[in-house]
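Recap slide: Shufflon system plasmid conjugative transfer pilus tip adhesin PilV, sequence and predicted structure.
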Amino acid sequence: MKTTNKKGFSLLEITLVLGIGTAMAFIKFQDMKNDQEIITANTVGSQIKQIGEATNRYISIRFDKLSTLSSSSSQSSDPGPRICSANGCEITYQTLVNEGLLPASYTGINVQKSSYKILLKRAGIAPNYVINGLIITTLPWTEGNRVRYDLLGRAMQAAGIDSGMTQSASVASGTAGQWTENQSNYAAINAAGLLAYRVGYDSSMYSVYLRRDGTLPMTGDLNMGGQSIYNAKDINASGDVNAVSFNGSYGRFAKNVSVSEDLTVTGFSTFGKNVAMNSYLTVKNGVDSDNYVAAKTNSSRLQIGGGGSSNQNAVLINVAGGAGDGYISLNGDNNSSIKLDVWGSQKLRGDLALSASNDGKAEGGLSASGNIAGRYIQPTSIATTGEICSPNGLISKATDGSPVWCIDGKWKGNEGNTIVSSGSIGNNTAFTCSSGASGKILVHAYANWLVGWGVYWMNASLYANGLLVESDKTAAFEYDHGRASGSSVTLFHTVETPSGSDYTFSVVATSDNLVKVSYSCVGV
């Protein structure tokens, strides 16, 4: 009989098999643990997002209370709890449950065994306050002495763009530093490893809510998706209102209305301010205005067209009623510019009054069947005496400003006598005379003397520009029983000289009893 020896596994083999099995079991355990941690992190992120969305809805419906920092506790219309101070308000998960924003079964504890702090802050200026806030866990996510930033990051991915974490005891920040909050604003930031979620006006998800009290400033356009808005009272717009049609029993526009195409009004309309149109306004029955009808720019015109008529009362513009004071006013900054340009004749059935500070100008002639009266008449043309003119009766002026007239077909100056100067002078003393428009000077000089008893002779001479031009002498005698008597020598002379020129004269008299020498000059 043959004996067979059966050998089992050696100790080494058993050790190797057990080691490999243990390693595989450990690896599998680690995989299971990692999977469980990922599930936990995703759940933690979803939970803080859920409470964040509920808080955003709470801000939108309780903005009036939050903006006034009003506390609340167990009120039927505002259940709370909400504790407010000058620094802001704090609510709890129970506040959100009481408002129906979270399910009644909500415990306020996440799967990582942490509760939440919900802090809300008021910012801005009345009445345009905004509310911002921060939701933050109370327990850091740690394992031993190590903060699990990896799991916090996974939770942030699940929570979305408004989530963040603390990596220090003083600052909470979002992904890549998109937002940051400090411990000075939110005291619940007190350790590293906390999961945070920002809410309110500055958050990204808050813009999806419409505040029911109407105080939320929109951060983007409101797209109604083709749906209507009913039961609106007033709609105020700072920009344009674009519509295919506008229907309503009553329309009121507080500012300008711009119509690029036709505007058809079948009833009575009232506009509080300007109506701007890019084309014509056609009116069949007339325009009735209590104030101005004005062209806005220098290039614009108020143009009225119509056919001709032989009837002088068939007017195109009729301004009537009342006293008629100030019906048509044309004004501007430039008084010298043309304000009224009329092609054709005009008829004024009343007086034409020009204010004292302005002038009336005519390119042609002015004809009047009555008088033309005024303070001054100032010709603008220059005429030379002796030249031909037409028609008779025209008035112009010479180069020195003296008036000339058109008489018998020639310009003539002042042909009458005009005393230019006169006075008493000493013997052999010069005096000056000026010629008139015709260039002539008529000089009248005379010397007086007094005689006593006897016969006396007197000689007198007239000099013009130093040349002797006239001389004469006379005698006087006493005839009244010794009482004194007197006499004089009178000299006349005419000088031909240019118009408006001066001549110097003097009188030399010889007599024992000369009293005075006098003269007068006449320009002709």
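The longest strand covers residues 440-451.
Residues 11-61 form the longest helix (51 residues).
(End of recap.)
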